Amino acid sequence: MFFTKLRISGKYFPGDRHVEVKPPIFVEIFSMKPFISYYLSLALLTIVAFSCKRFAEDPEKKIFRYNESAGITSLDPAFAKDQANIWAVNQLFNGLVQLSSDLHIQPCIAKSWRISDDGLTYTFTLRGDVFFHDNPCFPDGEGRRLIASDFVFSLRRLADPQMASPGAWILNDVAEADGHKQVSCPDDSTLIIRLKRAFPPFLGLLTTQYASVIPVEAVQKYGAEFRKNPVGTGPFRFKIWKEGVKMVFVKNPRYFESEHGRRLPLLDAVAISFLADRQSAFLEFVKGRLDFLSGIDPGYKDELLTRQGQLNPKYKDRIRLLSEPYLNTEYLGILVDTSMPAARNSPLRDIRIRQALSYGCDRVKMIRFLRNNLGTPGLQGVIPPGMPGFDSAHIRYPYNPEKARQLLKSAGYPDGKGMAPITLTTTSDYIDLAKFFQSQLAELGIRLVIDMNQPAAVREMKAQAKLEFFRASWIADYPDAESYLSLFYSPNFCPGGPNYTHFSNPDFDELYKMSMSIPRLDDRIPLYKAMDSLIMSQAPVVILYYDKVLRFTRNNINGLGTNPMNLLDLKRVVKE
User: Fold this and answer.
1) Residues in contact with 301: Cβ distance below 8 Å, sequence separation at least 6, in sequence order
2) CB count, 10 Å around CB of 139?
3) Are 239 and 249 in contact (CB under 8 A)?
4) Do the Cβ atoms of 68 and 274 come closer than 8 Å?
5) 140: phi then psi, degrees, rounded to nearest 5
6) Ordered DSSP codes for 481-507
7) Cα 174 to Cα 159: distance, rounded to the nearest angstrom
8) What confidence category does residue 456 fall into, taking pLDDT thresholds of 50, 70 and 90?
9) CB under 8 Å, gap of 24 or more: what pairs does 434-440 form?
10) What band does 178 get if pLDDT is binned at 50, 70 and 90?
11) Three-class SS state of 121
12) What is the 3-class SS of 344-386, one letter each residue?
């Protein structure tokens, strides 16, 4: 038998559904090992597996099936830190606001909002027809109506240091008083968030899955096990999770959104498998046992796609290819802070050498032969296509080996002679790109040593500014170019922030601070472009390419679409 106790500093009034929460929030789990016979356990597992299989194979059910080779670690929105978790969480939960397919912020649980003139106070008016999923955590098992205090609880829980949520940073600019975030609710339908300083992209941060709403009753009942007992308000509700085997969500019959007179979602269920081998998942997709495949793996790239990046004609009667620019910039980062040991004696401390690396890489050729033209050569800046602020008018570093040689000569290294080797640190997933870059630099006389490490080791060394030269990428968390520019803001030096190159420039910092004082995105864009131009002139990065969202679906799947954030949204999907 398991005993779970939740102690919350505050009050809970079941009668009027109000929750007053004052962090810190402590969860204490006490347990005794269950004494259940082996045969009873086996029987229960058999019943669960059989019922799940019957549901999944019911021909009358419209079930969307996809594979998650990376696995899912948690269904708690506070830990929706990677694509696998984000996709699953997005089916189960909602937040105040959401993104349209073209990255415009739209109402969700908040039907309207207003922002004070000084940009410090956000007031949201909530819908009154939103209900949590039916779950035993509620007294009668029926999901109760959502009220504003549920967001107070959820956001303060996210920010609580004891939660150690990787998403707590989205609330960094929210003011604090009496030890907790300034999130309050004067009544059931009004939520107020106060910031300590104006931050125009803040509304975009609230579109992330971290900002989803959860009921206090679920945390009270499940404690640390909420990760696999999720209760939200989303279009689907949780049914079963057999870790490493299958996960099933079923239609939420009381979901509040509708479209064209039809209540969403339009599917009966979502079934997720966990085949770790991508080749096996590909074969399941081709056989029609999966409805959706995301991205492309070298193992089947040439089978599905032509050299021009088009769908292989032999699959056109069964499969549909969807693609658009992805807000993901793939780049090589250079540690430019010479106070750090890794950069102190590096040839890359010279801006001319850094610029030579960019001029010496034929990105068009790289995309054609290594990516089947899936992606856009990185010839502009850090901000990718599809993001407001992308500067399509200026080509920064076109392939120009002669220009690269001139820069090497002016730096005192004609044809690379006398230059110490440069070490590029990467992982096995990107070894083909590293070797291509190595061969390009060899033509200039530059010796590049490839140091291949495990992903976790690369992340740790990068965060500690211990790498001279490293492969990296940046995927936008929210639809504002500030997400990319923050990588170069000097107060964001790693390990405290995402500035892994330790780039520092007073003009850039001033432009960044100035942009954050401008409420309208359209008015910030000229400053964003100026910052992007300044970064590229100093060359702390070599932009490789801008990625593409790549989705394959069966021809009987409609309404899936794509979006530049590569967010999987299944509530409008129809399976014919």
Assistant:
1) 372
2) 9
3) yes
4) yes
5) -105, 5
6) THHHHGGG-GGGBTTTSSBTT----HH
7) 10
8) confident
9) 434/471, 436/366, 436/369, 436/370, 437/332, 437/361, 437/366, 437/544, 440/360, 440/361, 440/362
10) confident
11) strand
12) HCCHHHCHHHHHHHHHCCCHHHHHHHHCCCCCEECCCCCCCCC
At 451 the three-state DSSP class reads strand
Angle at 454 between CA 448 and CA 459, to 5 degrees: 85
Burial state string for 358-386 with b = 16 or more CB within 10 A and e = fewer than 16: bbbbbbeebbbebbbbbbbbbbbbbbbbb
Q: Is 497 exposed, middle or buried (0-12, 13-18, 19+ CB in 10 A)?
A: middle
Strand order from edge to edge, sheet including 121-126: 110-115, 121-126, 190-194, 183-187
DSSP secondary-structure letter at 326? E
List % helix, strand, coil for the chain (3-state, nearest 5).
30, 25, 40
How far apart, in whole angstroms, are the C-alpha atoms of residue 234 and residue 252? 7
SS3 13: strand
> Which residue matches tokens 């001029």?
359
- The two tokens of residue 251 are 């239609």
Say how far apart CA 205 and CA 477 lie, in whole Å.
7
pTM to 2 decimal places: 0.82
What is the Cα–Cα distance from 259 to 270, expressed in whole angstroms?
20
Q: How far, in Å, CA of 320 to CA of 311, rounded?
A: 8
Model pLDDT for residues 220-270, shown as the tens digit of each residue: 999 999 999 999 999 999 999 999 999 999 999 999 999 999 999 999 999
| Residue 122 near residue 200 (C-beta atoms within 8 A) | no
The residue among 264, 197, 215 whose CA lies nearest residue 236 is: 264
- The amino acid that residue 378 corresponds to is G
Residues 6+ apart with CB under 8 A from 481: 383, 387, 388, 389, 390, 525, 528, 532
Structural tokens at position 436 = 């291509």
Q: Is the dihedral of CA 29, 35, 40, 41 positive or negative?
A: positive
Q: Which two tokens stand for residue 478?
A: 């929210």
322: CB partners within 8 A, 6+ apart: 549, 550, 551, 552, 553, 560, 561, 562
Mean pLDDT of 423-451: 95
The whole-angstrom distance between residue 515's C-alpha and the CA centroid of its chain comes to: 24
284 exposure class (CB count in 10 Å sphere: 0-12, 13-18, 19+)? middle
Report how far apart, in Å, the C-alpha atoms of 470 and of each of 199, 460, 467 are: 31, 12, 6
- Give the three-class secondary structure for 325: strand
Please state at what angle helix 521-538 crosses helix 506-515, rounded to 10 degrees. 170
Q: What is the number of other CB atoms lying within 10 angstroms of the CB of residue 93?
A: 25
pLDDT bucket at 57, cuts 50 / 70 / 90: low
Dig out the tokens for 285 from the structure: 């997709």
Torsion angles phi and psi, residue 181, rounded to 5: -65, 145
Which domains are assigned to the chain? 2-31+75-84+91-228 (3.90.76.10), 326-548 (3.10.105.10)
User: What is residue 296's predicted lDDT score, i.e. its pLDDT?
Assistant: 81
Give the model's confidence band at 7: pLDDT under 50 very low, under 70 low, under 90 confident, else very high.
very low
pLDDT at position 22: 37
